[in-house]
Design a protein that fits this description.
The complex is a heterotrimer.
Chain A: E1 4-10, H1 16-22, H2 27-34, E2 35-39, E3 52-58, E4 61-63, H3 64-76, E5 77-83, H4 85-89, H5 101-111, E6 127-132, E7 142-144, H6 151-162
Parallel strand pairs in A: 1-2, 1-3, 3-5, 5-7
Antiparallel strand pairs in A: 4-6
Helix pairs in contact in A: 2-6
Chain B: E1 4-6, E2 17-22, E3 28-34, H1 41-44, H2 53-58, H3 65-80, H4 86-118, H5 129-135, H6 137-158, E4 167-168, E5 171-172, H7 178-205, H8 210-215, E6 222-227, E7 239-243, E8 249-254, H9 259-262, E9 263-268, E10 271-278, E11 288-289, H10 292-298, H11 305-318, H12 328-348, E12 367-374, E13 377-385, E14 391-397, H13 399-402, H14 404-418, H15 426-439, H16 443-446, E15 457-460
Parallel strand pairs in B: 2-15, 6-11
Antiparallel strand pairs in B: 1-15, 2-3, 4-5, 6-7, 7-8, 9-10, 12-13, 13-14
Chain C: E1 7-9, E2 12-14, H1 22-28, E3 52-55, E4 62-63, E5 73-76, H2 80-96, H3 111-119, E6 135-136, E7 142-145, H4 154-163, E8 168-171, E9 178-181, H5 198-202, E10 208-210, H6 223-231
Parallel strand pairs in C: 1-5
Antiparallel strand pairs in C: 1-2, 3-4, 3-5, 6-7, 7-10, 8-9
Helix pairs in contact in C: 2-3
The chains are: A alpha/beta, B alpha+beta, C alpha+beta.
């Protein structure tokens, strides 16, 4: 049976959803049988590959880099899954949205520094005005809310997707 | 000279980008470690009631939320001016140890073992936990089981594995159920067996990496860690001690509230990650390291027998103060044993079941600092509140941040030794990533300020490097 | 006893009297209609629009909590379009202010969160507004976080009808509406608040909470308030 090409990505997230994914413990072995993890923090691929079957995205879209990354991902993936509240609703990263980025950066790098004060400007991407959920930037095929979503729910979702079925989450998950 | 990009640095927590500057001969003259994301916790927390901070700051990191929860509740305890009941402190220590077990297991097995066991130069497509599952299934299962033990212990104590809201200002919000205690103890022997087996296995292969050991951040730095009054390791409640590269004490007994006298933060022009430095020495020379290796360099002993036996052997092999960042892996495994030993001690004591686990109070001080040793290093949460308990100001100095300057140095060293632009091979660049992995950085944490690290290694034509 | 009239709900004849609302009749017959701003024994407001139902012969859905039954009325409580509208209502509520369930004191004990889960809302289709809203921590025992408020006005009604202090009101219009204390004073400076806490207990979200309850700890208990309202002669 042809293995499903699976990618996992984290944007402005805390990696908690990836930890919850690993919290399926030994069930990861069955995932490994059905899917080839072709890109992600746990593997060494350097460039996001083409023709990915399923990409799971954790984290909000917060910087220019995130924006470009998520657009590339959408182009190269058949299915995009937004995993966790940050990717689905903005969640905690979005708490910065009521402050203009300039003020944020001044607080951290000018008021908040004892030496070499100044806002970083070299080789670091600009912040978007808002940290937003993934679907405000690209089309998302499945939302899995939770902070993090329970390991069992993630395991079930991956299982269904690997069998070519779109899971019906309805009331199985909740925000928070 | 063409530009080569390694993007991202993989098998670390978060994102990072590295620039390598080559001279006309194709050799590396300088390297920089870029954090390309920033998140804003210190700013957007303003106005929130202080007792929400633990769960908010837990969202800085999904691997070590317990660390942030603990540092945060300690700061809240100070604002409330309460002393949590003794059992609450034991329970906090217990969940802290469980987190060490799962976090160090993750770091070793899931993130670094692919390099150590499959090889730094092995096929990148298989050099990961999934490749490990296929090539070394027994070891992979051991890693999964050990992480599971830690996570299940956290789940038993706190009802949630990631971002548990059980840890609260004043203590914890529920006592320990005896059935949970028994369940954790039942799983303990297997977990300990795995930890010991892993330690033995690692000791048998560590001599296979002489080049890496010699060049992975081997330069000396200061070391910082929390220790107790006897000078032994104290993950939960020590005072901060700084030691010089030769083991001499540079500063000792620094209490949480006094950290600003010794730790300053510098902004960096090309990174969203600030660089903490040792104030008495100044910026940028005041480089110090934190984390497992630093802790074992600073502490006299861990305080538990098995770990101390391994520590003695470690020092016999590599010296009283060990500098090579490669040995973070060895130190991590010693700490795994220590964490498990501590868990047994705490669980075997019947007072762990006492029902009084929380102190209640309002605002009794307008400032609080909580300091603990997270798996990756010293962690500081500093809050100021108004009379009504709303956060006016917050400062967070996170483990990986302390290591920023040291990581920059280590990357430069590794790149200079291993990377040769004229005959570039993937394994060379993997080693640059691997030294980052040795530090086990938590970049989501360190860029709480705003963002994550995106690791991108670019090899650029030589130009006079800034500041040279 | 008021006159008996003929009312059908979901095709079934149910006991009904003139003067009752659709919601009262439905509840008395064990028929479920989702609600959020409604609270037993407190005057209804029709603020949240979750309880909308279809009534034969009426072009648009009507709120069950404020619509009186009429003789011969035929009501549908559940349909595909009603479910869609109700989901949209919840999504509007979630997008209008800042609801980070994960770090809220009412996480797992919140009526808005529970309603979202019940209706199968797994994402919000509308752009989030991210308004900048204050947190009033001035009261020694309670907190009002406007980020979490859905303007259900339970606090307004309970304080007016049950406690009688009339501390809370709504100021502003449309999306800029805000619950205000004592004609817009910080809660801690209120001249009329008795600190009874009824508003906190009936607030369906984490907008009003007791100080010191950390994330996920704020469990509300409104049974006493409802019972008191009933004894005082309160009605729907």
């Amino acid at each position: 049976m042809k293995k499903v090409r699976l990618a996992t990505v984290w944007l402005d997230g805390c990696s908690g959803c990836h930890m919850s994914l690993l919290d399926m413990d030994e069930a990861i072995l069955s995932v490994a049988k059905r899917a080839d993890v072709v890109y992600g923090p746990l593997v060494d691929a350097q460039e996001f590959p083409k023709a990915v079957d399923v990409t799971v995205i954790e984290g909000a879209v917060s910087s220019q880099d995130d924006l470009e990354k998520v657009r590339t991902i959408r182009q190269r993936s058949k299915l995009v899954v937004a995993l966790g509240d940050c990717a689905v609703t903005g969640n905690v990263p979005a708490m910065r949205n009521t402050t203009p980025p300039r003020k944020l950066l001044e607080r951290i790098y000018v008021e908040g520094a004892d030496a070499a004060r100044g806002i970083p400007s070299d080789g670091v991407p600009a912040l978007l005005r808002h940290a937003v959920p993934v679907h405000e930037v690209v089309r998302v095929d499945l939302h899995v809310p939770g902070c993090p979503p329970p390991a069992k729910a993630i395991a079930w979702v991956l299982g269904e997707l690997c069998e070519g079925r779109m899971p019906d989450l309805k009331s199985k998950v909740k925000f928070g | 000279m063409s530009k080569i990009t390694i993007d991202p640095v993989t098998r670390i927590e978060g994102h990072a980008k590295i620039d390598l500057f080559l001279d006309p001969q194709g050799e590396v003259s300088d390297a920089h470690f870029h954090v390309t994301q920033v998140r804003g916790f210190e700013k957007f927390c303003e106005g929130r009631p202080f007792y929400e901070m633990p769960s908010i700051t837990a969202r800085i990191c999904g691997i070590c939320p317990v660390s942030h929860l603990l540092a945060s509740v300690k700061a809240c305890d100070a604002i409330m001016a309460v002393a949590p009941p003794e059992t609450a402190l034991r329970l906090r220590r217990l969940v802290h140890c469980a987190q060490y077990v799962q976090s160090h297991a993750l770091s070793f097995f899931h993130l670094s073992a692919p390099d150590l066991l499959l090889g730094f130069d092995s096929d990148p497509a298989r050099r990961n936990i999934f490749g490990l599952i296929e090539e070394q299934p027994e070891l992979a299962r051991m890693g999964i089981a050990l992480r599971k033990f830690g996570q299940q212990a956290i789940e038993g104590l706190a009802q949630e594995r990631v971002h548990p809201s059980w840890i609260v200002p004043g203590g914890v919000n529920a006592p320990l159920d005896p059935a949970v205690r028994d369940h954790i103890l039942a799983g303990w022997p297997d977990a300990m067996a795995i930890a010991r087996k892993t330690m033995e296995y690692f000791k048998s292969i560590v001599d296979q990496f002489p080049e890496e050991i010699a060049h992975f951040g081997s330069g000396s730095t200061l070391y910082a860690a929390l220790v107790n009054g006897a000078g032994d390791l104290d993950w939960y409640d020590g005072t901060l001690t700084f030691k010089e590269a030769d083991g001499k004490v540079a500063a000792a007994g620094v209490r949480a509230q006094d950290y600003p006298l010794f730790v300053g933060e510098a902004a960096m022009r090309d990174s969203y990650l600030k660089a903490p430095y040792f104030k008495p020495v100044g910026y940028p020379e005041g480089v110090y390291r934190v984390g497992p290796l630093a802790r074992l360099n600073v502490a006299a002993a861990t305080g538990t027998p098995l770990a101390d036996a391994e520590l003695a052997e470690f020092r016999q092999r590599f010296g009283p103060v060990v500098h090579s960042a490669f040995h973070y892996h060895y130190a991590r495994l010693i700490e795994l044993l220590h964490g498990l030993e501590l868990m047994k001690l705490l669980l075997d004591d019947p007072s762990i079941l006492n029902p009084r686990v929380r102190a209640h109070a309002g605002v009794n001080a307008l400032e609080g600092v909580g300091m603990i040793e997270a798996p990756r290093g010293s962690l500081i949460h500093h809050y100021k509140v108004d009379e009504n308990g709303a956060i006016r100001w917050a400062n967070l100095i996170v483990a990986t941040g302390h290591n920023n300057l040291a990581m920059n140095r280590a990357i430069t060293e590794v790149a200079r030794h291993f990377v040769h632009g004229k005959e570039l091979r993937e394994g060379m660049l993997n080693r640059v990533s691997a030294v980052v992995r040795a530090f086990d950085p938590c970049l989501s944490c360190s860029t709480h300020a705003d963002g994550t690290l995106d690791l991108e290694i670019r090899i650029l034509p030589w130009q006079p490097a800034p500041g040279v | 006893m008021a006159d008996q009239i003929s009312v059908r709900i979901d095709g079934e004849y149910v006991p009904a009297c003139a003067g009752q609302t659709i919601l009262e009749v439905a509840r008395a017959s064990g028929k479920y209609i989702p609600t959020l701003c409604w609270l037993e024994n407190i005057p209804a407001a029709g603020a949240c629009r979750l309880c909308i139902v279809e009534v034969s012969g009426v072009a648009r859905p009507l709120p069950a909590c404020t619509t009186p039954v009429q003789d011969g009325m035929s009501v549908t409580t559940m349909s595909e379009s009603l479910t869609r509208y109700r989901r949209t209502t919840v999504e509007f509520l979630l997008s209008e202010r800042n609801h980070q369930c994960a770090v809220c004191v009412s996480n797992n004990h919140c009526e808005l969160q529970a309603m979202a889960q019940r209706l199968g809302v797994t994402s919000v289709h509308y752009s989030y507004c991210w308004p900048k809203l204050p947190v009033d921590v001035s009261h020694p025992r309670f907190v009002l976080d406007h980020n979490r408020c859905i303007l259900c006005t339970r606090c307004v009604r309970v304080c007016a009808e049950v406690e009688g202090a009339r501390v809370w009101d709504v100021a502003g219009r449309g999306v800029r509406s805000m619950v205000v204390c004592d004609a817009n004073r910080p809660w801690g400076e209120s001249r009329n608040c008795t600190s009874c806490g009824k508003c906190v207990q009936v607030c369906p979200t984490g907008a009003m909470a007791e100080k010191g309850y950390a994330v996920e700890e704020m469990v509300k208990h409104d049974a006493n308030v409802r019972r008191l309202a009933h004894r005082q002669g309160g009605h729907v």
